[in-house]
Amino acid sequence: xxxxxxxxxxxxxxxxxxxxxxxxxxxxxxxxxxxxxxxxxxxxxxxxxxxxxxxxxxxxxxxxxxxxxxxxxxxxxxxxxxxxxxxxxxxxxxxxxxxxxxxx
Length: 104
Hints:
YaeB-like fold, 104 residues, single chain, alpha+beta, 2 helices
């Protein structure tokens, strides 16, 4: 499911940047590298915009890219609460995928 641009809570410039980052990720998949993408460990990755947009995502089987969270970075580091939330979303996606596998 795609989030609508209004649900991202970003101004139009940042929405455009987020959309461009998602198009790059869709086109390049796991071949995407810095400066556009960076691994944060444990299968969590971030798309990195020039204006501070950060999109956390993970890869799942079947060539799926799952967007986990979006925020605008306003300082050098990523707050631990934001990283913890993204890791939690990743675990939830993995658990849902495992549950689907049990039913298949």
